[in-house]
Amino acid sequence: MSIVISLIRSAGQELLDTLLPPRCVICRTVTMSQAGLCPNCWSGLTLIDAPRCAVTGVPFPYGGDGDDLISPAALKSPPLYHRARGAVIYDKKSRLLVQGLKYQDRYEAALPMARLMTMAGRDVIAASDLLIPVPLHRWRLWRRRYNQAALLAMRIARLAAKPCQFQGLVRVRATATQVSLDAKRRARNVRGAFALAPEARDQIRGRRVLLIDDVLTTGATSNACAEALLNSVRQASMFWCSHLPPALSGYIYDNYKRIEDLRTPDGGCDDIYDAILPLLRGRQESTA
Length: 288
What we know:
Blueprint: H1 2-19, H2 39-44, H3 72-76, E1 84-89, H4 92-103, H5 110-120, H6 122-126, E2 130-133, H7 138-144, H8 148-160, E3 169-171, H9 183-190, E4 194-196, H10 201-204, E5 208-216, H11 220-229, E6 235-243, H12 246-254, H13 256-259, H14 272-287
Parallel strand pairs: 1-6, 2-5, 5-6
Antiparallel strand pairs: 3-4
Helix pairs in contact: 5-8, 9-11, 12-14
């Protein structure tokens, strides 16, 4: 009976793919499978691998093959979380993937993002007991209708066969959008904004928790989440889909007023890279 059901499902999927061919999540080119990426978009992603900071997961341009190096930023201001990993650099291709999920109701983007994260973070996933998504405040969740971090956590939990506590953390107060804030103001903005959900205390206590989010910028949100967990959990680690390149991140914050008019209405930064990269290259050349 199970063989018959399997054959029916396979035939149904083939018929559906014929009527509605699967398309690349980024560029909409026809692909071989649903919720996948075409070869061009896949090759356009900048995957994060060693060498990278053993604490923050930020990639180094050079420095060996291992993960035992610690970045100057992590030495100067150690984060509250145990360690972190990211799957890809936040650039022109990955931006379309991340923002499709975050701002454009492209729920199907969660699966390829989760696959990327599962491949990149085998070590932090294996070392964790429980996944928890970074929460949205209830009013922002009501406006957006879904939490992109929760969708990623759900997919990763299924792929990695790990339990997930979707209500482990709560956002106890609404915060201003972080897009126009520098690192210090971001930290102040989210300080005390998260708390451990009372109903999740017993499930979380003493466990190794892996927090899931979509993009790392300054790490302010990650530190605020880790701070809310530290008195209850054994350790808290972070896992993002995309890292904003540190040099570009700092340049955006330093020069934000010059590019503020490029913000999209939903708070994204669709065109910032195209405007900033030539300026960043110019600054690097002038200081070389």
